[in-house]
Design goal:
This protein has about 700 residues and is an alpha+beta fold. The chain is built from 17 helices and 35 strands. The mean pLDDT is about 90.
Length: about 700
Amino acid sequence: MVNQTIQDIRNIALVGHGSAGKTTLADKFLTFTGTLSANPSVDDGTSICDFDEEEKHHKHTIEATLTHFMHGGKKFRVIDTPGYPDLIGQVIGTLRGVDTACIVIDASGGIKVNTRRVFQEAGAAGVGRVIVINKLDADNIDFPGLLASIRDLFGVACVPLNVPLGSGESFKGVASTLAVPEDTSGALVDPKDIHEGLIESIIEVDEEVMERYLEGTEPTKEELSRLMSQAIVTGSLIPILCVSSKTEVGLQELLDGLAMCGLAPDAIARDIDQGEEKIEIKADPSGPLVAQVFRTRIDPFVQKLSFIRVFSGTFSKDSQVASPEIRKGVKVGPLLEVQANETLPVDTAGPGDIVAIAKLEELHTGTTLGELAMPAIRFPTAMVGLAVTPKSRGDETKLSAALHKITEEDSTIRLDHDPETKELVLNGMSELHLALIQERLKRRDKVEVDTKEPKIPYRETIQIDAEGSYRHKKQSGGSGQFGEVHIRMLPFPHGTIPEDFATKDRFASMKSFHYHEGSNFLWVDSVVGGSIPGNFMPAVEKGFLERINRGVIAGYKVQDVCVEVHYGKEHPVDSSEQAFKTASSMVFREVFEKAKPALLEPIVTIHITIPGDNLGDVNSDLSGRRGRVHGMESAGGDLQTVTAEVPLGEVSTYARALSSMTGGQGSYSLEFSHYEVVPGNVQQEIVAKSKVADDES
């Protein structure tokens, strides 16, 4: 790795909506700077960045790809990221590894749903933002209208550093708005009209320079150069640059602009919480080591690759490195500089460097190297689930290993082993996301899966008190079976304190009580006179618990119930643990059916972010899903966030509906809230379906 000063490093992420031309731009950077000699094409499947077979097949980026090149004395590391909202996890991880986000917009397509999303994510990550308007060689470009839309949605801090000279086949170059050229004929917007606003956006961060400017003294080139990065850090300037990646018109100016506007690794103030104290992380090669894994890739040749950004300090190959998350620390092997799908060994890495380490199973996305822990990388919660089973018998172990690799690579993938439904549920960001995962399982890991919608984890409970008894008596020659159990059953509301509930006022003969938190089940031992011998009471409890896990009316786990065992009978010869376990299970079922049984459904809190124009449709749709809207608030620009409570079963396929209502511009998140009783008509449908499923199985 060529040693560069920290000021000469530019770590940049190309982000934006799909088909904005990010990958073509990354490919062109490499060929234009002479780093690679090729004529790559996404359409032809020869892209340098989209090297994966799935990417070649789909002709769009699926995984973030790291590249590097030199330009104008600067060391550029550019990471090309996927453009579909379904793959936003790749973008979020990448933003932790860079200092500047380059938001690419298709000049003809305009601002789309993921353009907004990545702009907001870059702001949340605290990195500098630059907007690139690409594909200016397309026909019917309304540049003034697009510029107005950008400023309206993202703010007046968005100011062009250059403007296009013509568009479509007539797009012949760009005109600077910083140092306005004499010949600006053909400019779609007059650079002189932008110049003054650009200067003010830059010098806003320095009161002295601003005062001199207001008094009539123009800032010098050196002052503008010095203040530009400060303005980008504070957000008072978001530069706009124009280009056509296909024809390379404006590419030289884009690279020069990124060399000037892209932030150096020491430009952003990064802090770490150490107890109540905040510690500033400085980009100092001699400082304490602070580095973080921001991406993981499973490579078919070198296996697991952990991509690491160094923020402070220096570490070398074959060294022992501390980690707050790993007690024994990490033995670092070779360090690798990555160029798309190729790697080159390097000896050391310092502040601003991005390297990869191979085959270290202890490292995961988000793991910190060094004594100080970097903040966790917050990924969105997976919203869409599929229950998966291997298509071929005997592939269970193979599937488990393959899914482990998938979750290592993609932090937005979640695997749930549901003990109630006995299903393995694969959760992703969308149906497209899950389809891509299935393709990868089949192609790379040679394992195919059957899928179905996961079961909703309903629960069963009671609504009134009831009591009863059951005698289990069986005689078939030799010793028989005998056990009789009498119980009272009461609703036990969630959140009730067992000690407050199990009192002499309620259970006059209570000897002891046992509480099971997982199912919120309380049972009280009120047996007197030894009518059920003490050595059989554990079997009675076991019978209750087995019935609770099996359910009564629809096969779902029981919760929020109290049972008092107050009497029973035993036989000196035929009574056994098995007999009392059976009797307690059966009496539980019979009394439960008398106590006005009900199904409980999980209620989730849903946060839906949508354009304001879609509020009416979304609220109406939520009402039809038995949802209760609790409030709305602005999410920036014309976006609104609706907060509501809705049954989980009503939004299991909500992604499709929301996309249809908003033209793909909506997003949402879910979090579990509580359980509620299912309405009677809905309960009848669920019970009927469960009986059909039992009959079929």
